[in-house]
């Protein structure tokens, strides 16, 4: 049967190509997403500044978060704890360096501090000069003394120049004493200061970002460090130099998993539809094989053999090109600051195996189902079975539809009854696929029903060609459903995901603006010196001003059942002082309660509840004193001041006075619109990621739509020829095909809209209280227009080609 399968493939290049395209693009996307996931898991970050140090000691960037109340857990049972990534850089005590120098074999210990600095419009990272040995840098000139700086050679600044350097909220004049050249390319240019200046400008005196150890043994160093930090060697050193990579890697894993899983499910749809349609078009051939004595098992082996040959070829090409697509996607994410540019893309053999396994499994399952019907008929009924479509509703289809509709309904109930805020998308999103699966299982019957409902408007608009198109749609419901399903899927996925994103953005912006009382903002790229607050408050026209700090904190005691590894969003403001905290009412705490927290850098602190407030569901946050929160952030300072205007002072006047009051300081002034725009831009980054990955999946679905429709229409040459011999003109045949295309598009759009509504409506009810999504209607209209144009083009072009010759010649061509 394998030899026969190879021969039939040579004679059926159209079906071969259609199946190849469906499997290839599915495997390609799954492989690329697998590469992104592997990149996130590995989080391979080449070391730069710390390259010369064989051993690097740094802070522990993870925090063990219990899944249940610690009072009921065994501290030794590590399976009941989850590791949360701390959002702020965790530093180590500078005294640890002295202890490390006493380790046998250690020849040198160098502490590293790193802080943002600004030279005019150029950004750089400041360090102490003695840490240049960690790279190492080659010096031309002299090492810096207090009040001096060594500049990076790439900055092109000469020795002896005096420069204004902004760092830690202040501007100072520094004389260039030397120029340092790095042995390799660095992400950020370096400025080297005297040790006393670097300690002051870092904002974290008595602490190091990392410690480089030369000589000695890693095990001996670990014994001295203990729980005070982590010890890394080799490639792991990059994680201490760039701690932000850890969180980005986690986000990349989630993005790739969601996109890859969605792609795999879409692939099942597309491959199954393509193979089923291809097999249906060969019913006469398969029926004849049954009539001459071919056994059901041989027929199944024939169909399976053909599918696996095509699948193996498609998978082989896809896994070769998968890393190329994955690397391109990663470059787009890095270029748009979704992941750090220091993270290195890497794809091994595991994503290729997963993509190949998933694709071949889909091929195997689809070919088994496609060949099962042809193999079950009795030889005496085979030719009749080939000529007329029989029963399509099988127990498997019915059970699949019931389970999918039940799952979609359950997710809708969970979304409305349990979820709050943007997290409702985690249950609303998957519902799209369940509703689509359910409708796809019943699509022949649903297509017939929809064709009946659309009968009167179609006949009124298209006359006799419309009546023929309607009859073709009803009689060939299984064939038509094969074209409807991928369009329904494309419309459903596109509409649901885009409007989920636009609604989430709108609600997030609304939640931000309704709590915003500021009329202006004072921002500093490396943080604001605390003295700026006093100057701003003393400015005429200012009613109030507050520092504004954002971070993440974790509640340790009492145990928070809502707690997870993401922690709580925390905001620091100047209105609170000491160890006060304002909490949302959903936490169930009362004024006067004491909470034990872990701040963003892992530091423990006890705070007292000073207020309990009602906050918008899904956007709850903890409010702490800025003076308590800011020192435990990476910058160590508040990055913004929010300013409210006095009565009668307009925005333009306020910002002008603020610029005058902060002249000479490294700050920028913006109005309320600038604040809102900055927040919206942050949301746009997440939206861009969603659009990129979902767009890739939709592009695959669009390809499958064209693939299916072209294949289905090209095989109808004999049918078109018979219609022309019976009195139809070529124009009437093309108009009939156009009506069929419009009918398919209309049915698919209606079903796709229904599928999307099953996801959008519950989500919108939760986040906005309205069943309608936020976002321009033009999005939906564009999706509809694309679906209609694709359907018409994919049907009319092959129909035009199929009717080019003489009608009598077309009737002599086999089915």
Automatic annotation (TrEMBL):
GO terms for molecular function: transmembrane transporter activity. It comes from the Bacteria. The chain crosses the membrane at residues 252-277, 307-329, 349-370, 398-420, 432-456, 477-500, 688-712, 733-757, 777-797. It holds the Pfam family FtsX. Keywords: Cell membrane, Membrane, Transmembrane, Transmembrane helix. The keyword Ligase does not apply. Its main location: membrane. Residues 260-377, 692-803 form the ABC3 transporter permease C-terminal domain. It is a multi-pass membrane protein. It is found in: Cell membrane. GO terms for cellular component: plasma membrane. Coiled coil: none annotated. Belongs to the ABC-4 integral membrane protein family. This is Putative ABC transport system permease protein. The lineage of its organism: Bacteria, Bacillati, Actinomycetota, Actinomycetes, Pseudonocardiales.
